[in-house]
Amino acid sequence: MKELEIIVCAKQIPDPEAPLSDVSVDVEKKEVIVDAPQVISPFDENALEAALRIKENMGAKITILSLGKKVSDTVLRKSLAAGADKLILLQDDAFEKLDSHSIASVLADAIRKIGEYDLVLAGRQAGDWDSGQVGLILGEMLGLPCISLAREIMIEDGSVAVKKNIPDGYEQVRAKMPALVTVSNEVGELRYISRTKMLKMLRGASSIPSWSSEDFVSAKEELRKMGIVALSSPPDMRRNCEFLDGATPEEKADKLVAVFKSLQ
Amino acid sequence: MNDVMILGEVKERSLDLRTLELLGAGKKLAGDLGASLSIVLLGDTVSAAAEQAVPYGPNRVYKLEHPLLKGFNADLWLTSLEQTCRKINPKIFLMSHSFIGMELGPRLACRLNTRLTTDCIDLSIDPEDSLLLRTKPVSGGNAISVFKCPGEPQLATVRGNVFEPAEAGDGKGEIVDMVPEIDESMIRVESIEVVREVVVALDKADVVVSGGAGLGDEDGFALLQDLAKALNKSFGNVMIGCSRMAVDKGWISSDHQVGLTGTMISPNIYVAVGISGAIQHLVGMIQSKKIIAINTDQGCNMFRVADYGVVEDYERVIPALVKRLEELS
Asked: Which of A216, B83, B114, B297 sits CB 3.0–4.6 Å from B151 for a disulfide?
């Protein structure tokens, strides 16, 4: 049997777990400025983990696609250290601040260029703009069956079988491959990658292919930026925290009891 | 047609609260545009819901009934909605940011070659060009962005609990039967089985005791259970919540998850244990009346939004707290 080909779309974003103090809003430039290290968007890491589990079960070749104006291969090499087989960076100035539709169309072009695939996985939404659109639009553009919010993915005789979240439980669904699946965090976090493996991957001289728009984008003139009219800071969430001090955990617990009593 | 259209959702044969909120939002936009308001309902039997919608004032209620629209098959609902939009040509089409809206919105936007904005918390009409201004929290809630996008219908999914629900009046709109052209061959994702699980209704809790990555392992939740039990003697409805990290680590099921992609809650008391306070978590619990944080890291985000803070290892302070609470009861 031919080896399964899985494509995982992974976006590089500033760490969404960054402390509030590291985030500011530039109203003039309409930009969110996050002074934090770049990471792979968490739900995309979940998607990679789902792909790795399929690979462990039955063998598969995993290709990671990452799109941006500039993508850091040091950040994305983590996917290779975790067990992905190939990483392709889609980098071009024209890819800056694209709207969801345009991002999906660029990814669709890249996937058509790759040609052979059985499964396309993406995180349910990105940790920066929280739009939750690219995966499903991409599926539509490629004319694939679309399954959203997966918590478990299995492969059975040319079909993908998915447990997907529904409001009061889950639904077991099945679609013929090739198919697109968006992945939710119930799949589980990306496996632990040892420091040795990570360093080896970072030092590894293998060059990472990088495609610019000329290489594969079919209708560059149709790409559109996000239509941001205004950007502002959210209402201040800060409260004045009263710290309950004490020499021992018991003393602190006593103060907590007093707080609970006062709130009763 | 110059129309603002909304997608209604029916639960147990009756319109859900989110639909009434959409009717409220849609009515205002239609008023500002001088447009008519319509609602579209899909299902195997939606006659009762259609009748129920009329008093809320839509000019038209589009009723799409088909045996295959029973339950929610995304492929068939999508095709039905696509056909409806092509016939009606609404200027604006709103859906709830619900399970259904999250799935259909992006796919419909693609098929109609228009742009969608998800999870909107405000909608208004730009007086200059009569286009829809879509306000949405971005960056997990670190910023609020206003978008304006090309394409029609102008599509948005709307966050629940933000817009005032419409009130029933003496609306006399007409009910229009539409016939979706669908058949089983259009089903590409086959439903094998729906498994209902007992899920916690976190939004109904008076007190939520919540744990995160700082618990260190799954057993931490047993301590939180002890605390919840002890608090239950003095407070009504005490439930266990968690951060996304705790779900990712497989310590607890996702129905307990509080935050942007979990449940948004506003209990009387929120106790955050070992939760550092990523922004996407904070937006889900910031409306809590009182917030108590327990964490070893005094610099963490959670203390910034808390009313009371205890800097301590939870494994030491919670057993002591449970003991005291039990002595008192």
From this structure: B114
Q: Show Cβ contacts of residue A28 under 8 Å, excluding neighbours closer than 6 positions.
A: none
pLDDT tens digits, residue range A130-160? 899 999 999 999 999 999 999 999 999 999 9
**Does any domain span residue A35?**
yes
What ipTM was assigned to the predicted interfaces of this complex?
A: 0.94
pLDDT reported for residue B10? 96
Q: Which residues of B touch A19 (CB under 8 A)?
A: 299-301
The CATH number of the domain where A185 resides is what? 3.40.50.620
The whole-angstrom separation of Cα A262 and Cα B325 is 13
B145 beta partners: A231, B136
pLDDT at B208: 98
Asked if A202 is an interface residue toward chain B (Cβ–Cβ < 8 A), one would say no
With tokens 């964490």, the residue in question is B295
Has domain B3-186 been given CATH number 3.40.50.620?
Answer: yes
How distant is the alpha carbon of residue A141 from its chain centre? 19
pLDDT surpassing 60 at residue B1: no
Q: Please compute the mean of the pLDDT values over residues A170-176 and round it to a whole number.
A: 98
pLDDT at position A201 is: 84
The total number of structural domains that make up chain A? 1
Q: Residues of B with CB below 8 A from A184's CB?
A: 254, 261
Q: What is the pLDDT of chain A when averaged over all its residues?
A: 94
Mean pLDDT, all residues of chain B: 95
Chain A residues 54-93 with a CB less than 8 Å from chain B: none
pLDDT value, residue A63 = 98
Beta-carbon separation of A23 and B139 below 8 A: yes
Query: What are A233-254's pLDDT values in tens digits?
Result: 988 889 999 999 999 999 999 9
In a domain, A239, yes or no: no
C-alpha to C-alpha distance for B272 and B288, rounded to whole angstroms: 11
Q: Which residues in A lie closer than 8 A to residue B245 (C-beta atoms)?
A: 189
Q: Nearest-CA distance from A205 to chain B in Å?
A: 32
Q: Is the pLDDT of residue A205 over 90?
A: no
Is domain B202-328 given the CATH code 3.40.50.1220 in the classification?
Answer: yes
Helix (H, G, I), strand (E, B) or coil at A146: strand
A147 touches chain B (CB under 8 A): yes
CA distance A48 to chain B (A): 13
B180 secondary structure, DSSP code: -
Compare all CA atoms of chain B with the CA of A145 and give the residue at the minimum distance. Answer: B188
Report how far residue B231's alpha carbon sits from residue B320's, in angstroms, rounded to the nearest whole number: 13
A197 in Cβ contact with A80 (< 8 Å): no
**Which amino acid, B4?**
V
- Tell me the domain boundaries of chain B: 3-186, 202-328
Residue A240 lies in a domain: no
- pLDDT-derived band at A1 (thresholds 50, 70, 90) equals low
Q: Report A:99-118 residues touching B (Cβ under 8 A).
A: 99-101, 104
CA distance A134 to A67: 12
Chain B nearest-CA distance from A50, in A, is: 12
Q: Which structural domain, as residue segments, surrounds residue A140?
A: 4-222
